[in-house]
Write a structure and sequence with these properties.
5 helices; about 70% helix
């Protein structure tokens, strides 16, 4: 798979900025800036140099970090979808869960919280308790 120029740049930039070398470089720049403060009498221009530089870098890094986070999130979602699809007792309705509303996600969260509180005997690993099973159970109880 061929990456475009921005993807290549973003991957390398995110990798570098998370490295010890980037931290050391930034530390050296701050020390150098601070050490020339007396030469410039700690003037407004001297202060503006660091303020402007850090603001620009922070602004650009927000986009690089978001791109990296989106890519990681998508990869994790694909891996989880593969696990769900591969498990015979899992509900495939969970695969596109990220498209649900906040309220729907809250309902599912409550369901899984209740499931986690079941006694170990009841929530045995030999028995599948998927959202589909829970829905069938709720329908059966409703129509009895």
């Amino acid at each position: 798979m061929k990456k475009n120029l921005f993807d290549k740049f973003a991957d390398k930039a995110v990798y570098f900025t998370g490295s010890a070398a980037a931290f050391i470089t930034a530390t050296i720049l701050v020390i150098a800036w601070a050490s020339v403060g007396p030469i410039f009498n700690f003037s407004e221009v001297w202060q503006m140099v660091i303020n402007t530089g850090t603001t620009i870098i922070t602004f650009l890094m927000v986009f690089l970090i978001q791109k990296a986070q989106n890519k990681d999130s998508k990869a994790i979602q694909i891996k989880l979808n593969e696990l769900i699809a591969a498990h015979e007792h899992a509900s495939n309705r969970i695969v596109d869960i990220e498209d649900l509303t906040e309220d729907e996600l809250d309902q599912l969260h409550k369901f899984y919280e209740k499931l986690g509180k079941l006694p170990k005997k009841e929530a045995s690993s030999t028995r599948s308790i998927s959202i589909d099973e829970q829905s069938k159970s709720a329908c059966n109880q409703r129509y009895k």
